[in-house]
Amino acid sequence: MHMPGWLAAGFWGGVAGAALVVGAGLGFGVSIGKRLIAAVMAFGSGVLISTLSFDLIDEAYQRGGFDAVAVGFLGGAAVYTALNVWLAAKGAKHRKRSGGQQPSEAEHPGSGLAIALGALLDGIPESMVIGLSLLHGGAVSGVAVTAVFISNIPEGLSSSAGMRQAGRSARYVFGVWIGIAVISGFAALAGYVLFQGASANVIAGTTAIAAGAILAMLSDTMIPEAFSAAHNMAGLVTVFGFLLAFVLTKLQQ
What DSSP character marks residue 167? Predict the structure, then answer.
């Protein structure tokens, strides 16, 4: 039975978001070495960078041309950066760090909410592109879903490990990630429903906005965490992730 577009968008957005909960379970319940966490983070970063380059931005360019891509890409990065700076001041600066960098609620009151909002900020653009991908050909981009799923596991893993070290409860940790997984499904659904009748330029610009926000997120949060522990190996592992996503993109064509 053929699944309606809106339902497919919500379903695949939820599947990709569920990887955050898987990662959170590993990070909170299992003692994993910082270097391994960093390596997985680097791999996920490479996967997303490749998907941005060969799937999202290229598709946005084909739809709307250079203007839509440039404005959307820079705009998405600027909005993400502004919100990230604000949340960092509230205590969410190290929300993806697996070490002892995250503040406890006693050290920085309100940081728990800020970290939750920061995780939400990181996840929405990734989920939106899954819904937007359905507008191109009527089928969800398997590469986009795979890339977000792969990158979400180390994101949830590293962040929840840091939350545990900051003394946050299992109820808080899993409440955050389960909530974001559910919201990811709705964000993907919104990406499909809200832009279903939009022009090619609008869809291209919106895709570029999401892509710009994702790249800014990678540069501000995931890549620094990967390098902090993996050091010189981070680059090589990132390249492996990039290559995997590139291969998946070409196989889908």
Answer: T
